Amino acid sequence: MTNLKDIAVRTGLSINTVSRALRGRGYVSQSARDRVVEAARELGYRPNRAARSLRCHRSYEIAVINFIAPTGSGCDTLNMEKVIGMRHFLARTDYELSLHFVYYEKHFTAQTALQIVDIIEPRPAGVVLLGDSDLSLDIYRHLVRQNLPCVVISHMERKDVDCVSIGRQGGVYQAVRYLIGQGRRNICYAGTTTCRTRIDGYCQAIKEAGLREMIVEADGYRHFTGLESLFEVGDQTARKMLTLFPEADAVQAYSDYLAAGLCAGLQKLERRVPEDIAVVGFDNRELAMFTNPPLTTVAQPNWQAGEAAMRLLLQKIENKNVGVTALTVPMEIVFRSSA
Amino acid sequence: MTNLKDIAVRTGLSINTVSRALRGRGYVSQSARDRVVEAARELGYRPNRAARSLRCHRSYEIAVINFIAPTGSGCDTLNMEKVIGMRHFLARTDYELSLHFVYYEKHFTAQTALQIVDIIEPRPAGVVLLGDSDLSLDIYRHLVRQNLPCVVISHMERKDVDCVSIGRQGGVYQAVRYLIGQGRRNICYAGTTTCRTRIDGYCQAIKEAGLREMIVEADGYRHFTGLESLFEVGDQTARKMLTLFPEADAVQAYSDYLAAGLCAGLQKLERRVPEDIAVVGFDNRELAMFTNPPLTTVAQPNWQAGEAAMRLLLQKIENKNVGVTALTVPMEIVFRSSA
DNA sequence: TTGTAAGCGTTATCAC
DNA sequence: GTGATAACGCTTACAA
After folding, report:
1. CATH for A4-46, among 1.10.260.40, 1.10.645.10, 1.10.443.10, 3.40.50.1100?
2. Which 3 state secondary structure label does DSSP give B317?
3. How far is the CA of B46 from the C1' of D11 (A)?
4. Which nucleotides of strand D are protein-proximal, with an atom < 7 A from a CB?
5. Domain boundaries, chain A
6. Tell me: the pLDDT tens digits for A84-143?
7. What does pTM read for this prediction?
8. Which residues contact B210 (CB under 8 A, 6 or more apart)?
């Protein structure tokens, strides 16, 4: 493996000068720099990160920690898209992205703590926390206390931690406004009512338009054990919705999964989608393209969220004095056929 | 951060002895060892990986390089599942998993790819190559020439490189046998005919049962620009299939995407799935749960493939003399309603 | 503008 | 059994 010494020998300069030339620091004459760069290219020089880290007391590794609920499917696609966005932002920088999964029980356990220790043992330059959980916040504080730059990608829009959040409320607000613009007047919201962000967006739009709030709790949704049962929940929710609000002509669903079930359920009940009832999904998962009809849905800007989180993290790594920053990435509606 | 020196000072031993005691190598008296271990625990000692790497000329990083076609959606879910399998296998080892993406253009040459790989990769302990491409093989040879342990997760079952492949042929073979067992006698295969593995499995089962080969080329499938058009291709393929083989009572599709389109297309043509025609998908993507009816499909054992690849890679890293090993991970049928 | 020398934390080699 | 000592490749004072 080529090292600085090889280049020094080749160019007849000292190791030191070579180092400066390659990093563009300090005084190096143009001719020396040119020779060094040329030699480095020819010899296929790649800096030894271990040596650099050792000398500089500094790591070039960014750890992404993905919290995974034991009930879940392993790892959410949407989170992986965020990771890809992060990786993309890191391209052409000196940083590596290392991927970690932490399986959590409901609360912070000794088990969780151990997993975290293993992850930060090699002292990453920074950490991105991914996945829904109050746990994220505990870990965030823990890491910050250790002086590790850290960014959370969060469900909620919080101002007290470094975080990037997806503008869920604004997304649903937009979608409902769109439905209103299409002439719908009896717009339901279907989903879990424990999670407020989406509902707040819905209520805001409904209120502004002077319409009636029609919220349908999707029973059993929170305690699902797999996606297939979720689909059935959508089916039942369709029935419930039409019983509570027979006049419904549109529905904003909590998720694409629910929306898919909702479409099927409504069709079984002889309602046409979107002619009789418009259905709007949430997340823009792959399946949104394959439902009947394909779903109009509020899309998560995963890629952008990942990029934004990484940009913020690098800022914090390179300038530790940056204050707490909270960003919100707006959602966008993807129009297909269901609304 | 505690280092060996701190422990040496604390125990009154030399750094060297401390190092040996902690690694369990060489001669160290029991009492010395006990004192060292105790002190290490108290001080919360964690080895400095950068120093160790530097000294031992050895990295603790495993790079996963995912080749991505620019037409694709960014990163295939199935590949990410493999990555998760790999990460899982790495838990509780000293290795990190670092993630890389290489987007290749149409006229991307092996040369370009090599340059990119060289740039993104500062000496990992090993490399896993992921994603469809002849490029993978060129890169594989390049890395092996550099003495870098390397494993490919491949579409084809090859014997000349270290690789883990998914038993596609066997998967389709099983599925067609299942269809035959269900009393189907006019079983089609629909998909691209340029890709032979699946077709070989199909033909094998058909031949063994003395049935007629009925292969339907899915026109336009190869040159799709997005998933939505794929859905339409399935639709058209249904039409074509019924024209060519009106007696068809089952079809093995090239992919779940195609199968989804096929189901919709067949239903438009007044055929019931599975009563009139059974449809079997391939891949077991998330969408297979949301089609109408939910797809019976040949499932990729992604997690296992990832684990197997990582197990093989670690073997190669830790014992460079291991010969070329090719593994095949069998596929399994997931039964839903479409067949 | 360039070179010299020290040191980051660890492990390997050797002498005691 | 144990302890000096010398690397590993790089960066940073500081000297020239």
Report:
1. 1.10.260.40
2. helix
3. 24
4. 1-5, 7-13
5. 4-46, 61-166+303-330, 167-299
6. 899 989 887 888 899 988 877 666 676 777 777 777 777 789 999 997 667 788 888 888
7. 0.87
8. none
